[in-house]
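TL;DR need structure tokens for one chain.
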Amino acid sequence: MLFTDTYKTITAEARGLYKDRGSRFIAIAMPVTSQEEIRMKLEALRKEYHDARHHCYAWVLAPDRLTWRVNDDGEPSGTAGRPILGQINSRELTNILVVVIRYFGGTLLGVSGLIKAYRSAASDALANANIAEMQVMERWHVTFPYIMMNEVMKVIKEEGCLQHDLTCNEENCSIVISVRASHAERVTARLRKTEGVSLAHRD
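>> reply
TL;DR here they are.
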């Protein structure tokens, strides 16, 4: 995969619904940033919908979209989690969890019916979601002599970096900047040309 410093995700929770022969499939799409956050959200949904038959889901994390998981939660293998993931992937989304909660209506839907139901519910939730393109950012800690303030700030402003935690005394200054990942090499090279500048990458 070619490196890109943008990715698509949803900005807020969104819901969808699909009904078939008495069964209700409630889909909930949520923005997430870690597996721990996913675990907590799943636990909360299981408590809220404790009387549902199944809580099936798929999630994708990281800008490269290589970290993911599906769960059929007792449905026949491949009939729930994979169709949900397919809807996430068709929109190239990441940092997202989609859970489809099933209330069984008494009639078996069969493999094809289940795949359609979980796919349709997930699709409905994502159709109702606000999708945004985000930038992958790098954070750098920059220290420099006070007398070089104008030169350093000129680079930061020209490159459109976000600024955090600027502190100065009579001799030295310290600032944390956020810069687009694809611009980081150019920006740090410019800053290093300024006398007395020291850079450290921040996680």
